Amino acid sequence: MMRSLCRLSTIFVLHWHASRGQDFPSLSSWSYQYQQYWGNIVGATCSSYTSQSPIDIPKQLDKVEQKNLTTLGGGEEGARLGSLAWSLLNDAVNVTLHPGPVTWEVRMTNPAAILVQLEGVDYTLQSISFKSPSEHTVQGAHNAMEVQLYHTGKDFQGAERRLLVSVSLAQREDAWNKFLDPIFNAMPQDGAGTPSIMISNPWSDLAPPDRSFVTYDGSTTAPPCEAATWVVFMQPGFIGVRQLEQFRSGISGYQPSRLAPANSTRPLGLSDLWDSRWGYNSRNTQALNYRPLSLVQMANAPPPFVPKQNFEGSTSIWPILICIMLFALLVTGCLLAVLTRIKRHKEEYGHGCCDDSDEEEDVRSFQQLQSLQQGATLLSPLPDPYMHMAPARAGFGKHNQIYLA
Questions:
Q1: How far apart are CA 225 and CA 241, in angstroms?
Q2: C-alpha Rg value of the chain to the nearest Å
Q3: Residue range 175-185: average pLDDT?
Q4: From the centroid of its chain, how far is CA 53?
Q5: What's the CA gap between 330 and 333, in Å, rounded?
Q6: Does residue 354 have a pLDDT over 80?
Q7: Do you find a cis peptide bond into 256, omega within 30 degrees of 0?
Q8: Least confident of 239-253, 258-272, 322-336
Q9: What is the mean pLDDT of the chain?
Q10: Three-class DSSP category at 340
Q11: Cis ω on the peptide bond leading into residue 224 (within 30° of 0)?
């Protein structure tokens, strides 16, 4: 009897220690399944009390500015949009491929081959990684994959800075991403070896034609969660069903798995093409905590990629016409009400009456109402075309209602 009690006590203590061990994961043993314990990792800064990433991009932003995409000349071949500029001097770059239990990583052989500048700070591209589903969301809606370009640089005081550029990819059955094709085909499926290949410049073949972006201060999305500045492109690209399955099945093959377990509930915003059998390597969205978000819109986007202010991707203009008609009826009703009251006042007191304070008050009230209505037409409740009020469908932040394929 005593021996059995001792055995049970030993099992209980071991189980308690094992469960407590999850509270303190290390930089080499963390997993996406136990993200709630990342704040306890020694040597990391993943606490929710700091500015963390990813985030859910809300409808209302702190700053919205329209900028034209310009071409850089004078031996600096590239382009600029607002505070962001990038080099296109190299059409292709040499990289090495690194499979792993949490993501696939592409590392630049020569980081200086791809140069980026943000707010006067120069950055070089170090690596590219992949997350599925997308880590950043727009009004809660995911996309099938998020490609993250990791850059480093030094600010004016010589301190190291990190810049992460996010490109979201929507899953589509008939799509095939030519930028990902050589990477995914050469990535070792058994996790052995680090092959070297050449890929195209991601700023040419991966970044979307419409370079509108949201920028904010956050962190890297995996431990040690270092401070970083983010540039999140708002127009999604596309990834094929087989390409996405190739990646998700590849990272799910490592045991013990460090992914979040498969979930039969499809993430918000994804289509029924999403395969729920594989795990996730995405961090949950973090609290914004009053951090400012800025949107830079590309005013001169190519015509096929100009955002469409339509409902559910329809080309119908009836919703717009109905809104215009309702506004016209409202203004007409106000005019008729004011004119009727003025007429009644004149009939009651005559044309020679000097006491017109009521009439002036009516006119002033109408002018104030009219100015408020005019202001509402100039300041749309939707601050930009990437935050649509239509129900979520496949696509990053409901983009399929905006960008028509």
A1: 30
A2: 28
A3: 95
A4: 11
A5: 5
A6: no
A7: yes
A8: 322-336
A9: 80
A10: helix
A11: yes
Q: Are strands 227-233 and 160-172 parallel, antiparallel or unpaired?
A: parallel
Q: What is the pLDDT of residue 74?
A: 72
- Amino acid 21 reads G
Tell me the three state secondary structure of residue 63: strand
Report the alpha-carbon distance of residue 162 to residue 153 in Å, rounded.
6
Q: Which residue has the higher pLDDT, 386 or 328?
A: 328
Is the pLDDT assigned to residue 322 strictly greater than 80?
Answer: no
Model confidence at 53: pLDDT above 90: yes
Instruction: Give the 3-state secondary structure of residue 356.
Output: coil
The CA distances from residue 278 to 134, 256, 257, 319, 396, in Å, are: 14, 14, 11, 40, 20
**Could you tell me if 111 and 125 are in contact, meaning their C-beta atoms sit under 8 angstroms apart?**
yes
Helices (H), 133-201: 181-186
Element (H, E) at 126: strand 121-131
What does DSSP assign to residue 308?
P
CATH architecture for residues 51-305: Roll (3.10)
Residue 293, CB-side half-sphere exposure with 13 Å CA sphere: 20
pLDDT of residue 1: 52
**Nearby residues of 293 by Cβ (< 8 Å), 6 or more positions away:** 57, 58, 61, 62, 63, 214, 215, 216
How much of the chain, in percent, has pLDDT values that exceed 90? 58
Beta-carbon contacts of residue 12 (< 8 Å; ≥ 6 apart):
none
8 Å CB contact between 107 and 135: no
pLDDT of residue 335: 79
214 - beta bridge partners? 232, 295
Question: Which secondary structure element, helix H or strand E, spans residue 151, and what is its range?
Answer: strand 145-154
pLDDT over 70 at 321, yes or no? no
Number of H helices, E strands in the chain: 6, 17
Task: Count Cα neighbours of 79 within 13 Å in the Cβ-side half-sphere.
Answer: 15
